[in-house]
Design a protein that fits this description.
This is IclR family transcriptional regulator. The protein is α+β, with helices and mostly antiparallel strands. The chain is 47% helix and 18% strand. The protein is built from 10 helices and 7 strands. The strands form 2 sheets. It has a 5-stranded antiparallel beta sheet with strand order 4-3-7-6-5, with helices on both faces. A two-stranded antiparallel ribbon has the order 1-2. A hairpin with a 2-residue loop joins strand 3 and strand 4. Helix 5 runs antiparallel to helix 10.
């Protein structure tokens, strides 16, 4: 039974390369045509493959529907939370998870610092979109025309002397973030708070969320916080792997 299942599943990546006839499927599996036909018929009955008029087989619509349904039901917060907790236990600082929805970047999870000085951020609260490291990552992943449209509509409050001053500066920062694959907020929202962030990507490589580690200067300096960047990126990569199904569930730190 397990060999039959294995053979049937091996047909799917073959057809992902393009339509194939019965002989090609049999050759790839190393089985007789009658065996390949039996497997294809079973997959066809479940809508996972489709037989074309030219007698070649391709992936079926049901397979795409199942994939779409699975993606829509994935909860990035649920997947990410254990990783965020382990990161927090390792470094002790505040950890955030954020997403971009309806022209706002919102925190959807937070693990508090172990230190007495706490951040006022709250789950469900929009971030300061022009300066926050998580916002930079989420907006940097947008197509260029969307990035430019968003940047030109934003206001640019002067939270501190390090705040982003205008749309041009913001777009240059987004280009930099897009190229390097990580982001920072070093006193841009509050003089005393620094932040490093990394992206969480889906199976298609697009950024679906961003996570960050933040800490006040009284706990660690900006330079000290930046030394955590490799750990933050490893954690984000582990979440990405689990969210996209590329890697098995395992600890990150």
């Amino acid at each position: 039974m397990s060999q039959t299942v294995d053979r049937a599943l091996s047909i799917l990546p073959l057809l992902a390369e393009g339509p194939a006839d019965l002989g090609q499927v049999a050759d790839r599996l190393g089985v007789h045509k009658s065996t390949a036909l039996r497997l294809l018929r079973t997959l066809h009955e479940h809508g996972l493959v489709y037989r074309q008029s030219d007698q070649r087989y391709r992936l079926g619509a049901r397979l795409f529907a199942l994939a779409q349904e699975a993606m829509e039901n994935l909860d990035v917060r649920e997947i990410a939370h254990p990783h965020l907790v382990r990161l927090n236990e390792s470094c002790g600082h505040t950890v955030h998870l954020a997403v971009y929805e309806e022209n706002e970047v919102l925190y959807i999870d937070k693990v508090e610092s172990r230190y007495p000085v706490r951040m006022y951020s709250r789950i469900g609260k929009p971030v300061a979109i022009t300066v926050a490291a998580v916002a930079k990552l989420l907006l940097a992943d947008l197509p260029e025309h969307e990035r430019r449209a968003v940047a030109e509509k934003l206001d640019y409050p002067t939270y501190t002397s390090r705040s982003t001053p205008n749309a041009g500066a913001f777009l240059r920062e987004l280009d930099k973030v897009r190229e390097q694959g990580w982001a920072t907020d070093l006193g841009g929202h509050e003089e005393s708070i620094n932040c490093v962030a990394a992206p969480i990507r889906g199976a298609d490589g697009r950024v679906v969320a961003a996570m960050s580690v933040s800490a006040p200067n009284v706990v660690v300096t900006a330079d000290e916080l930046l030394t955590l960047l490799p750990l933050v990126r490893r954690t984000a990569d582990a979440i990405s792997g689990e969210y996209s199904g590329r890697t098995p569930v395992k600890g990150t730190v």
